Amino acid sequence: MQSRLPPKRKIRNVEKVIAVASAKGGVGKSTVAANLALAFARLGYNSGILDTDIFGPSIPTLFGLSGEPKLSEDNQLVPLRNYGVSCMSLGFLVGEDAPVVWRGPMVMKALQQLLHEVNWGGLDVLVLDLPPGTGDTQLTITQQVKLDGVVIISTPQDIALKDAVKGLNMFKKVEVPVQLLAKSSSKFSFYTRD
Fold this sequence. Notes:
By secondary structure, this protein is of the alpha/beta class. It has helices at residues 29-42, 59-62, 104-116, 136-144, 158-173, and strands spanning 14-21, 47-51, 80-82, 85-89, 123-129, 149-154, 178-183.
């Protein structure tokens, strides 16, 4: 018996959605996602970023934001803004030093709220900063949200590249167009004081 998935849907008030992913942690994915959202804003687009890493949100730190988002009249979360980018993250809703010790159902409920209960106010592009890996979060997003593409980030080490290929294959399998596979930290520079 094959279960039917709900149809993919657009995120309300968002024209385009681009995911930034990595199958390995610590490769610079969140930094690339933040810079991509900033670049769209600089080009004049209404840009936003959604931190979907429930256990390790980094967008609040990267955008220098803190505090709880307000609720709109229709009980939707209102993103915080900095540098011309609308930002939403679970990191705004839990304490900065508080661990998120949740099992799958709570994580998926929080993810659903972040995806569908935020008042983006009309964005041209929303960048999704995905957590590392190819697990529940990535699968839920690819099955439920109409993604216009994904950018996959890796480092030049063999182990990271092997995992990046797994991520690339996952996105191909779920029919999300891979826009770019980028190597982060591909050049090391060392400076010494003389």
